[in-house]
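This protein record is not my work; I was only asked to verify it. Would you go through it and say whether the fold makes sense for this chain? Here is the record exactly as it was handed to me.
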Amino acid sequence: MSELGAVLFDMDGTLVDTEVLWWRTTEEVADGLGHALTDADAPEVVGRAVEDTAAHLVRVAGAGDTATVAAELTESFFRKVEAGAPMRPGATRLLTELAAQGVPFALVSASPRVVVDSVVGGSLAQVPFAFTLSADDTPRTKPHPDPYRAAAERLGLAPQACVAVEDSPDGAASAEAAGCGVLVVPSLLPVLPSPRRVFARSLEEADTELLRRCLAGAHGGRAASGRGDSG
């Protein structure tokens, strides 16, 4: 079985239950622009960078300025996260298991640095991440491969030695394009299956054995099926 070099965790919707807070934030800002957010907007909201969501809202509402809307989204989301973001089921156990086995892990998020630092200083304060990456730390964020490539390089590893844990289509696409093994634990949006993706219904189903199986996809083999599905 392949050696597990490191695990790279997405934050929102993967380790902490913030996707609902982000949706509520976007809904409120959209209302202010005269647009009622619906499920049709979800692909442009869930797992996307703030600037991408802001551009979408300006486009569909036909009002506002992207930079101003992005700033409003960030500030509103930050206030909600500061009030508390609960951990996802199974997250604490998996992180503890990795630490006990000496497997390094880092945080790779598409959220702005101010939001990442808020969550890491709050809900994730006791988690020994090797480092954290935010949307502000690479030229392009998810769905581009830049964040995961940068994280692997910072660890001194090839992306193929790393497993990314993601919940969204854009996050999974980013990790896969970088060459990482991918464990998908869907939250608000379904994620399409791929030979290079392993699925679980919850982090409660994830352990180091399952993470090692994800590396088969990163090495170009047929990834093993997870215990869950893509729905």
Notes: The two ends are 27 Å apart (CA to CA). Confidence is low (pLDDT under 50) at residues 222-231. The beta strands are 6-9, 105-108, 132-133, 162-166, 181-184, 197-199.
